[in-house]
Amino acid sequence: MEKFKCLFSIGIFGALGGICRYLIGLQLDYRGDLLVNLLGCFLLGFLTYFWLNFREIANWLSLGLGTGFVGSFTTFSSFCLDNLKLLLAGQNLALLLYLLISIAGGWIAALIGIKAGTEIGRRFSQSGEEDD
Amino acid sequence: MLLMMIGLGAALGSIGRYLITIRLKKVSGWPLATLLINLSGAFALGLLFGLNLLPDVYKILGIGFFGGYTTFSTFNVELLALHHSQARRLELFYGLTSYLGGLLLVTLGFWSSKMF
């Protein structure tokens, strides 16, 4: 039953993440993939380390938000295809920029998310202890 | 309606990614699951893109399913986890195989579609 709850949560949140990515992509094309990927790296780093340092949340909810929503919101396959499309279109400068910003930006966005999540999670748990 | 179908695709892709990840986590100490998911997804999307499917079918399968199946955020957070646990060589290996492998496989997938 617990496993079913987790799968269901991942499915519902994953659907929302995919729909959001699609809607943003309609407006921004491959720049949309870049935006969702960088935003998602920050968000996943933040969420994972926030809960790790703050308190336990229900497994189904953390899986739904992290693995489901953010995991589905970001995409590796479209990132790869965007590069191929830019290559085929001969847009070499855009290709180079897209690659560099994705690779360096994804890593840095995740790092900032992890640092912020850790810090804010600790503050939250400390202020919780003072209240007790 | 199309939006719902893209959502359904992304839901199934996410569930598939989760099931593969928990299965492989038991046998592997590093993010092998995400690597295999991202590489197989890159190949599949390259193939789908080259097949000239109906636009809505491509959106449901390519953007929905394979977009939800593969993930950029988990990949990067895993890179940083390796970084923080001082597994720098593994981090570099994981990053390089993902990026070089992904770009190679999406091209191979696209190229294979031209054989149909």
UniProtKB/TrEMBL annotation, chain A:
Binding site for Na(+): G71, T74
Regulation: Na(+) is not transported, but it plays an essential structural role and its presence is essential for fluoride channel function.
Record-annotated membrane-spanning stretches: 7-28, 34-52, 59-81, 93-114
Subcellular compartments: Cell membrane
Gene Ontology BP terms: cellular detoxification of fluoride
Keywords per UniProt: Cell membrane, Ion channel, Ion transport, Membrane, Metal-binding, Sodium, Transmembrane, Transmembrane helix, Transport
Keyword ATP-binding in annotation: no
Membrane topology per record: Multi-pass membrane protein
Function: Fluoride-specific ion channel. Important for reducing fluoride concentration in the cell, thus reducing its toxicity.
Name used for this protein in its record: Fluoride-specific ion channel FluC
Gene for this chain: fluC
